[in-house]
Amino acid sequence: MKKLTIAEFQSELKAQGVDRREDMAVVCPICKTVQSMQSLINAGAKDQDHAERLTGFSCVGRFTGAGPHKKGTPPGKGCDWTLGGLFRLHEMVVIDENGREHPHFLPATPEQARKLASQNGGFNG
Ligand SMILES: [Zn+2]
Q1: Rounded to the nearest whole angstrom, what is the distance from the C-alpha of residue 2 to the centroid of ligand 1?
Q2: Domain for residue 107, yes or no?
Q3: Does residue 95 lie within any of the structural domains?
């Protein structure tokens, strides 16, 4: 289990090198789909706030109606996974200033984040 403080987590996201916060990317632990706040907005999240709360916690597939992940399906489609569910299969927690642990999807690599940002129409240098 990877444990990061909020500051460490934010610096991992910054290291992705995308310009916009909305394009900072995470990876679903179940279907391995790379996704960002922009992905959730594009997929029909109510508004920016809603997308922000759910990014890294609920898979983009919950917005697109992708359904449960099937073993062997290549990443990209999303699935119905959420870390708020019954099974706790997260790979990372972010530790807040009170020492509380919050399950979160792992950050994507810079390559993954930049590729997704360009697919989502976000500008990146
Ligand atoms: Zn997923």
Answers
A1: 19
A2: yes
A3: yes
